[in-house]
Amino acid sequence: MDSHLKETRIDGETAYEGHFLKVNRDRVKLPDGSLSQREYIRHPGAVVILPLLPDGRVLLERQYRYPNDRVFVEFPAGKIDPGEDPLACAKRELQEETGYTATDWKFVCTIHNAIAYSDEHLDLFLATGLTPGEAKLDEGEFLELFTSTVPEMLEQVRRGEITDVKTIIGTFWLEKILAGSWQPD
């Protein structure tokens, strides 16, 4: 169907392999037959949790992100370990980062957040029936928890105060879910 747009890999190499990321460099044949090069990051995927408290408030995090040298407002999230089920990862990450557990989980959607240079995907889950507990942050992980309402979050998105793509998309989903116009699977 889309074969007229497909690029074909000729050969490639690992340009960089670190603890967390792997950068590949491939030589490709373009649809018109010419040759080009593609550099891209391999990523195991991650989960994003939309934790909705019984009073309708949303549990969020403030976390410093080194590449942008600033603190971001984000939903709890984390990398999927090799062979780990995404829902199991979401449950683990929610408890590790926030201390909360949830009785009800619903898959919301999958997003691809950096399609031009990475194969990373994020699976979003709605978590309800929340119970507080003690967080178990990874070594070297520092964050603050707080709560907000969806209208407050939408206003922060509009003002450019929330710029993290997974949090923006999750906020838009929550708005539709709470209005009853969209339902997760």
TrEMBL record:
Listed PROSITE patterns: NUDIX (PS51462), NUDIX_BOX (PS00893)
SUPFAM superfamilies (alphabetical): Nudix (SSF55811)
Catalytic activity: GDP-alpha-D-mannose + H2O = alpha-D-mannose 1-phosphate + GMP + 2 H(+)
Domain (Nudix hydrolase) ranges: 39-170
Entry keyword Flavoprotein: no
GO molecular function: hydrolase activity
Example GO BP: nucleoside phosphate metabolic process
One GO CC annotation: cytosol
Cofactor (UniProt): Mg(2+)
Pfam families linked to this entry: NUDIX
Recorded superkingdom: Bacteria
The keyword Zinc-finger appears for this protein: no
Keyword terms: Hydrolase
Family: Belongs to the Nudix hydrolase family. NudK subfamily.
Protein name: GDP-mannose pyrophosphatase
Organism: Massilia horti
